[in-house]
Amino acid sequence: MSQQLPPLNALRAFEAVARHLSFTKAAAELNVTRAAISHQIKFLEDYLGFALLERKNRTIILSKGAEAALPKLRQGFDCLADAVHLMRSEAHSERITVCAAPSFASKWLIPRLHRFSRQHPEIDMQINSNVGLVDADLQQGGGVMDTFFRQNQVDVVIGFGAGLYAGDSVERLFAVSAVPVCSPVLVSTEHPHPLRVPEDLAFHTLLHDDTNYVGHPRWEKWLKLQGVVGVNANRGLHFNHVSLALDAAVDGQGVLLGIKLLAQSDIETGRLCIPFDLPMPLEHAYYVFRPQQIQVNQRASDVFVEWLLAEAQAQNDLIS
């Protein structure tokens, strides 16, 4: 007979505290109070008969026994997560979950999904957006993303970054550039100061996409690249999401330095225009990646990624 184990909640609490070295962060992750975490750790220590943690100068230190057991405990939770994923996927073998950066999902992916559904009506799909996928966390490599895949039961991820995702299956979708975009009203001869050359920006409001992610375009860098002087790169309207900045540009409230890919649909419909076609290539790009291990939904994931790459190639051919 296998040895009786302590309650799973106590083990989860310990693993979270040991990983974060913080009771507060562990409580936030598990959506419980800090007191509840402390209670679970105390229960586990009483069960085992020795201290797992030691506090020194407001720092948490693991005991030797706790440190030795932690890798096996993490491996056990990973196995449990995989088992749950297998059970869920068995009932929906043709259902995949795709997680994408919010701006990419709304401006590029969702308008095209009807084509995928027509071609593959047998595959159900759930689309989740996550602002973390345009964050610096993606640059930390496969370890971070392995945790993301497991915790969120995601099959495919589309993110914006440098492509340094060691340990995952990665393919680049797009290299991207930033261009000034604005309402056609601002280039009309009826405007008091129509946009003709970059120096004309001095007479217009600059719109800033201040979304918190590594590699987003900045006016200061673009103005320096074009050799423009006399324009304050920091003035204007600032937004914490690119969709808000694009809406303001469509509304004629100013000129946005935006990722051309995300503005493309508005450009094609005439809601936005490029007053001067002076692109600034960005170091980061959009990537699609999946965990390396074989998935239950492997066939559906393969079909979706194949379709996604074909759509990306068509888009690249269109704007190249």
UniProtKB/TrEMBL annotation:
Short name of any one Pfam family annotated for the protein: HTH_1
Q: Any idea which GO molecular function terms this record carries? A: DNA-binding transcription factor activity; sequence-specific DNA binding
Task: Kindly list the biological process annotations in GO that this record carries.
Answer: DNA-templated transcription
Kindly indicate whether the keyword Iron-sulfur belongs to this entry: no
Q: Tell me which residues make up the HTH lysR-type domain.
A: 6-63
Q: Which UniProt keywords apply?
A: DNA-binding, Transcription, Transcription regulation
Asked if the Swiss-Prot or TrEMBL record annotates the protein with the keyword Transcription, the reply is: yes
The organism's superkingdom is given as Bacteria
Q: Which SUPFAM superfamilies match?
A: Periplasmic binding protein-like II, Winged helix' DNA-binding domain
What InterPro entries does the record tag this protein with?
A: LysR-type_TF_proteobact-type, LysR_HTH_N, LysR_subst-bd, WH-like_DNA-bd_sf, WH_DNA-bd_sf
Q: Which species is the source of this protein?
A: Thiothrix caldifontis
Q: Which CDD domains match?
A: PBP2_GcdR_TrpI_HvrB_AmpR_like
Family assignment from sequence similarity = Belongs to the LysR transcriptional regulatory family.
Mind telling me what this protein is named? Transcriptional regulator, LysR family
